Predict the 3D structure of the following.
Amino acid sequence: MRVLAIGIHPDDVEISCGGTVALLARRGDEVVILDLTRGESSTNGTPEERAREADEAARLLGVARRFNAALPDTGLRSEEPDQVRAVVRFIRAERPHVLLLPHADDPHPDHAAGGLLSRHALFLANVNGYLTEENGRRQERWRVPRALVYNGRKEVRPDVVVDVTAVHEVKLAAIRAHASQVGGGEGALATPLSDPRFLPVVESRDRIAGRRVGATFGESFELLAPLALSDFTALVPPGT
Ligand SMILES: [Zn+2]
């Protein structure tokens, strides 16, 4: 199984669905992260620091590869053809079975734009007449079988909750790896992430999600398209 998780900034995947990424990677799935921007407009941390932190977090999560599309931070535009094309190119190159997408309804303008941009790219990746190239060769179209939207600053409708209890410590360690963002170290300017209450909020959110499925910690996802079923076996827990 190949899974591609798209984030806007280099810490978004960790904060929103890092537990799911870590869990799938431990299961043996090939998980790839694509960060759309280098976070060069961040209040804290340089792009170089952030790239090092992202690499360390990727190592902790156990992902196969992590890429950065280097699209402009604070300049993401879903209607910008070159930006959409860059994301389509990644989707067609990685050919994921499952795509984890940012929530398009988010008060952060880059997150909102990145969510929409990802959805446009998801659609266009399967359009045969939409041309992209890789190493001078035309890429084949790719239909992503399943797309799941993860939480942003607004909660998604919890259609799916992944039990991440077994890897929750890994998720928190991967978030802490972004020390320029969550450390609140010397000289750091105040942001929602540098606030010492930030990690407890992430933990609380994950506890509430987990509670919905009888787990200690969970991560919620919204389905972009309905699940097709021919019988109800998948709806009933095994052994009941
Ligand atoms: Zn972000």
About this structure: Residues 2-226 form a domain with the Rossmann fold fold (CATH 3.40.50.10320).
